[in-house]
What does this fold into?
Amino acid sequence: MIFNQHFEYLLKKHQLKRTEQRLRVLSLLSGKKVATSQPDLESVIGDVDRVTLYRILSAFEEKGIIHKVFDLNGTANYALCSDNCDEHDHHDEHLHFNCTSCKNVYCLDELDMPPIVLPAGFKLEKLSFSATGLCPKCINKES
Amino acid sequence: MIFNQHFEYLLKKHQLKRTEQRLRVLSLLSGKKVATSQPDLESVIGDVDRVTLYRILSAFEEKGIIHKVFDLNGTANYALCSDNCDEHDHHDEHLHFNCTSCKNVYCLDELDMPPIVLPAGFKLEKLSFSATGLCPKCINKES
DNA sequence: TTAAGTGCAAAATCTTTGCAAATGT
DNA sequence: ACATTTGCAAAGATTTTGCACTTAA
It folds into this structure.
């Protein structure tokens, strides 16, 4: 869990006004170790207009505060970026694990990603890895 | 380019009727080495209803004839599976390369994917790798 | 005070569903 | 002939846009 103070710093840093709605989004995202979809956010965030949520998420993404990752159904899920992201330089090259049972998307930052060599002629900018399977919680439920 | 005869075999194999519309989809997909989005298909396929296209694509995906991969914008792109796919066992664990300029999605089957070790507790079912950057065609255009 | 942000209504997209007519086997 | 598949119309869902009101700085 990250402090409110840090959220305010984040907003100021990116010249975004400190609003109740934005703080709630940041607080919700920081509370989860998994990426959260727009509909999920909407259902728990309470009294924030759907359109506002869209706009907050896309503003945050542009500024590099959060990153977007698509799950198995192609719906966007959002997670806080590590601190050293900005609009020009996203670092979300960790593995995203999609649980087929609970549908959660885990950001596994701690894993080292292997180097990938592309065929000649391709210029690599960004790599992303994603895995599908069962998360620890759902494995336990099954057995 | 694959032969029409092969498409008919594919359809029969999966108990799908040999229709003009389905053959056209197969032929278009086989003609490209890149995955194609639903809107792109729609624009070149000619006189096939949008709804029919949706249904064809989802039927093909269920049967394991094509696989779906999401591009940078979260829109679904489709590509023919290698021959040994079926509904229970998809093999599309190759790297997908997304060109930021022409938006094409390349299926780079020939690359070996490195093994990934997940944290304890996660059960891996499927891995997928995707890369972003410039494809050979677009690099040449730039310089 | 004033530029940015929010909420509401409405438009524009995208995707799915129901059903009658057409088509493949 | 009969089950599938298609096209059209219409419903649902998702996302975007415009604009007046509100709010943080």
